[in-house]
């Protein structure tokens, strides 16, 4: 059994494309079959190597590894030519020389009459030898097929015109190449977006003219933005790699994507192997799904919370490098990540939280320091006590803070808040004694001194 993902390399890997790929990949794994990656690059003007790379990067970041391919349609032109010739020889296709002008007039006339604009078959019986090649679509009867998602679909052949299968320069068009490839590559389930559902009856006619057996079809409903319009850049990031950049874990995005259009009871969190185990084509939703950034963020946080530190580190490596955070001196990365795991919605947030442990800063948040750095006495006393502390662990640090509170008869807030600001620079830190332990004695003392300097400078 084989399924495939067949993107056109005319942009980055879109969220919708990634969901199609995930469903096709899952279906192949579920059947213990093969997942084929095919790059549909016949549109030479719009296809770019950069998009091919973006698609391959996106797929590999998501972990949707292909078993066969990537195949490139531009490498298969001879095969398409052979099939186009066969269709011509068997009188299932013909050359058409109708000019653009004639076709435009025809379209205008039909539209004016309120009819569907379609080719009138003018060259169908002319036996010409050049021009574009059109497929001889049957004139009568119906094309009926059962879509695994949409159910039974039936279209009258009189609705379908003779589609162009080769341009005048001989290059093949999508509907021809997709049929040849799905046949040659032994694809038995075609899973794709429902923007292609109108092409399916035409493709079925091609299969039939070629005497090939049909694959199963499953057309996935669209993904909509929050306003009900088709998901696009207007709604925020739509490129898969933008989600990597924003600090999402690939498995969180996959989990989110599978739920966009498929459900298994009320369950929200699925591991990839669970998805493969539970997935059925019949459970794909018929209605379009709305993309909900909040829910994705929630899932990401859930995944971060429950991930192993080692797994987080693997995914953090790119971000640390990207943000040039040097972690070679400072506390063990594992401890810092474990500390931040509960409080980070994204890996970007986590890296932000990591910086205070590995990077010094030279100023404090302005607003917070004006409010919290007023009284030098508690910080001074804490500095004295911590300087004398030998065994630099959270519990001991906590004891020192408590003693400051007792000796000065102040509440914890009076020392906790300024201490947190002194350590972090921005007040953004968790459990203060653990933070201080991780920041380390040297840096803690330096930062306390820096806070005291700030108070001295601003006290007049
Ligand atoms: N290359 C087509 C696209 O990117 C997909 C074709 C198909 O899946 O049949 O829209």
What ligands are attached or bound here?
glutamic acid
Overall strand count: 12
Ends: how far apart? Answer: 79 Å
How is the biggest beta sheet arranged? 3 strands, parallel
CATH class of the largest domain: Alpha Beta
User: What proportion of the residues form beta strands (DSSP E)?
Assistant: 5-15%
Helix percent reads 40-55%
Strand order of the largest sheet: 1-2-3
Mean pLDDT across the residues is: 96
Could you describe the 3D structure shown?
- With 460 residues, the chain is mainly α.
- It folds into five domains: 2-71 and 175-222, 3-Layer(aba) Sandwich (Rossmann fold); 79-166, Glutamyl-tRNA Synthetase, Domain 3 (Glutamyl-tRNA Synthetase, domain 3); 233-306, Glutamyl-trna Synthetase, Domain 2 (Glutamyl-tRNA Synthetase, domain 2); 308-358; 360-460, Arc Repressor Mutant, subunit A (Orthogonal Bundle), CATH 1.10.10.
- 48% of the residues lie in helices and 11% in strands.
- The chain has helices spanning 15-30, 49-62, 77-89, 100-112, 174-184, 200-210, 240-245, 250-259, 272-278, 293-306, 309-322, 333-340, 347-358, 366-372, 376-387, 394-408, 412-424, 432-439, 441-457, and strands spanning 2-5, 34-39, 68-72, 93-96, 132-135, 142-147, 151-156, 164-166, 189-193, 216-220, 223-224, 289-290.
- The strands form five sheets. A three-stranded parallel β-sheet has the order 1-2-3, covered by helices on one side. The chain has a three-stranded antiparallel β-sheet with strand order 4-5-8.
- Helix 8 packs across helix 10 (293-306) and helix 11 crosses helix 12 (333-340).
- The site of glutamic acid has 7 residues, from loops.
- This is Glutamate--tRNA ligase.
- Its cofactor is Zn(2+).
